[in-house]
Amino acid sequence: MSFMQGFIFLSTLSATSRLGVRAFAAVAEPQTCTTKATGGAGVHVPIGKDGEGEYTASTKGCFDVIDTATPLVLNEIEKQKLRPFGVGSAAYHIADYGTADAGTSLGLLSQMIQAVRDRSEDDDKEVVLHYEDQLTNEWQSVFNHALGLKSVSDAYGKLIPHPYALKNVFIEACGVGFHNQCYPSNSIDFGVSFTAMHWLSRFPSSLKGTEYMHAARCDESPHPEKEQAASDWVAILKARAKELAPGGKFVCVNFCKDSNGYFLGQTDVGASMWDSFQSSWDKLKEQGLIDEEERLGVSFPNYYRRKEEFMDAFEDDEISAQLKVVSIEERVVRCPYRELYTSGKSNKTPREYAEWFTPTTKTWSHSTFKSALRSERNEEEKEKIMSQFWENYMSLVEKNPEVHGMDYVHAYIVVEKVE
């Protein structure tokens, strides 16, 4: 796929602020298959209407994941040598890769800005926030959140501050895709990414015709997904190595399959989310809504790497010459929905809990399940089937709500560009 020679330039100005906000999104020609040039655009399709911020509203666990990473990020800023005035941009540049609708990282980015200003002893230091995601992302939601036009709260009802309120903050967006170089060489001071880089740049789809659905459920990782994930991770690191300024940092918090064999939604607590998915999907065939090919047609285009798979890429000569691993560790963050329900703090009935919890699993999986349906089905028919699938899941959760949740299992990786 080739890119058109040019960029869309969008300019938005807050009615209450003097600062301009620019968004750059690469324009791609129509395509019939996904390629790395689009950063995996179409591999994951956002749900909801752009501008409504449904991802943030339904994905409260990501706030806890980012809170867990916050000390790591702030500690690296504290140790980082800031570029002197006149060397590159006088502003401090932060990139949020795979930002989705930008809501879940607002609090962290606000803290990062304050930390940079404290470090530089300059309360007015300019900071540029570069929001990155795929071409088909919810860009209107990104600006609604980043500019404070739509308020955001976490699972506990706490209002999250937005960075634009701190002034001298410039906000930009890029739709090239994180598998590619997104920014000029030596331009980014600090990059972060949360729960994003498990998405692959292509569709291996090797699990179609099986009941596994996801590579993590297999005893041995299927080669097409494993090889694509390895290739993608190398590409991701090479791109970040170019973009980071010397001494720049990159904190990547990415889904993994940990040393205990735990992964998203399948840990030592509660029922397996994936078993629940399978049961709810299989029931569609029992209900006469899908056939056997569709039942076995689900193959998630993402991959939860193991710790050693993350580290293998640093054996690459090009990467090791530019990047070094400061630290890597595995952590489990419990599902806040289930924790609030089992503690009695949610005050919800079993059905209310099912309706409250289920959307956090839907935001990222709906499009993959839907893609398993026959292409000759029209959109209305597909959405009716999908509505029944989610009803099947909610009914399952309602029967025994205390065992249903989605624990997060991540590798927390800190990388530095060699000076």
Automatic annotation (TrEMBL):
It comes from the Eukaryota. One of its GO terms (molecular function) is metal ion binding. Keywords: Magnesium, Metal-binding, Signal. The keyword Cell division does not apply. Residues 1-18 form the signal peptide. InterPro entries: MeTrfase_7, MeTrfase_capping, SAM-dependent_MTases_sf. The keyword Metal-binding applies. Transmembrane segments: none annotated. This is Methyltransferase type 11 domain-containing protein. It comes from Cyclotella cryptica.
